[in-house]
Amino acid sequence: MATGSAQDIWEAPINHAKELKSFRKFIQIEEDEKCDECGWEREDIKHVLCDCPALEAKRRELHEEPIVMNMMVMHPEICRKILSRKYKTLRIENPNTKSESGQPVGLPGTSGL
Fold it and tell me: Where are the alpha helices (DSSP H) in 2-89?
């Protein structure tokens, strides 16, 4: 059974939190938190990883069985891939990759964004 490190568990939601419309509304840079993909009332991490019908095909490409929230702990690499496919501007295929400046790629404020 694969398990993620504490760093892996937190990187998936933290790296992408700024892209989630629920977070963007919270920090007042979006007027609503509706999912742009399917129109659901709140685009949060659970909706993107588990529930969004518009992202179902992308999830199935990476994992045959339904995605559940505890996969952020058990299979963080799958969650990172789902999120990176939704938010194509973020590069986090390997969270240990360093940029030329030595910063982790994909973290806010780095060249990986």
Answer: 6-17, 21-26, 45-46, 56-62, 71-74, 76-86
